[in-house]
Write a structure and sequence with these properties.
Helix 3 crosses helix 4. The protein is built from four helices and eight strands; from the N terminus they run H-E-E-E-E-E-E-H-E-E-H-H. It has a single domain, classed as Jelly Rolls (Sandwich). With 123 residues, the protein is an alpha+beta fold.
Length: 123
């Protein structure tokens, strides 16, 4: 997955201990615009649509991530993400990201940089 591409095997193992896997069905709202957000999601399998208001603004597939704004400081979700096929997600709570950030600061910085670059591209 691109978000984790620069991490070493030890760092990936640390991330794995701080995440959980979740499966959802098509039509499930994964995050909703305006809601509080405390988790980062990485789409491992399946697809999802990103909507702003009622308009589709993007599509996500395996390796794409969302919810990063919650980890970078802003608490409110900026868009709605809905599964369009069955999906498998890797989920990291903000509190677990803080543990990762404390224990692996260089790797956390690399992840934050990837998140910031993605935000800049979507702005």
């Amino acid at each position: 997955m691109p978000l984790f591409r620069s991490l070493s095997l030890d760092q990936l193992e640390a991330v794995a201990t701080l995440t959980e896997s979740r499966q959802e069905e098509p039509g499930t709202v994964l995050v909703e615009a305006g809601a509080s957000g405390y988790s980062l999601f990485v789409l491992q399998e399946g697809t999802a649509v990103v909507t702003g208001g009622d308009e589709p603004i993007g599509e996500l597939g395996p390796g794409d991530f969302f919810g990063e704004i919650a980890l970078l400081g802003q608490r409110e979700r900026t868009a709605t993400v809905t599964a369009t096929t069955p999906v498998t997600l890797v989920v990291m709570l903000g509190s677990d990201f803080r543990v990762f950030e404390r224990d692996w600061p260089d790797a956390a910085e690399q992840m934050k940089q990837a998140m910031a670059e993605r935000l800049a591209r979507s702005a």
